[in-house]
């Protein structure tokens, strides 16, 4: 289902081999755009791109590497002729109580989830400028809007992504580059599968809508922000979380 018009647009999506990134890639193609999926998962990434046909490509890309970033964005322009959008989606989510989190693990999570986003935006700026503007969508998290237990490195990185998005929005508006953050709540993907969440109404009482999200629901927000329909939207933080960060329901508070 095409929810927005992305015809003519070329978008790079990191961590697009599976999960939210793969759903976003599908939505870009459904909207008439073309997409370069990047990931460290080579077989899954190639398979995801192949399913999308000629409007998609895959390239192995580690978001912590400056050289990989340069190669990925140049490849997108070489294959498709331009760059209009960047979705910084790649991320890892594992965590510990703050007092048990190792410094090494904290650094690793921040390196991928936050430094990777910084390098991506920085590398994309000249190409987006040359394009006359564009849209950067950074996938933060509901954990970037609240203090969530067991997410020392992850939560800190997602708050960082939220802040970096604001800075990008303010600095890059003059170049016609919009920068926004999306904050998914609990969504069914390979990342959250180990938590044991189930799809379906009533299965997630912590969220006012009472259920976890599906990747297509996050993708719909991403492609809106990529599209010209969001032409006056920059520096925004869009929660797509079933109301989880809005507050607590009576049912949740009282258990009835
Ligand atoms: N699923 C959720 O409930 C949820 C909620 C909030 C935010 N998010 C965020 O959404 C994004 C996508 O998560 P997902 O749920 O689809 O998880 P996922 O694990 O299915 O997908 C993440 C992808 O990122 C890739 N990746 C990891 N390290 C990388 C690196 N160094 N370079 C390139 N790619 C790398 C992985 O290989 C994987 O394909 C993440 O940033 C995550 O933090 C997810």
From TrEMBL:
Pfam families: adh_short_C2. It is an enzyme of class 1 (oxidoreductase). Keywords: Oxidoreductase. Gene3D superfamilies: NAD(P)-binding Rossmann-like Domain (3.40.50.720). Its EC number is 1.1.1.53. GO terms for molecular function: androstan-3-alpha,17-beta-diol dehydrogenase (NAD+) activity. Signal peptide: none annotated. It comes from the Bacteria. InterPro entries: NAD(P)-bd_dom_sf (IPR036291), Sc_DH/Rdtase_CS (IPR020904), SDR_fam (IPR002347). Belongs to the short-chain dehydrogenases/reductases (SDR) family. This is 3-alpha-(Or 20-beta)-hydroxysteroid dehydrogenase. It comes from Streptomyces lavendulae subsp. lavendulae.
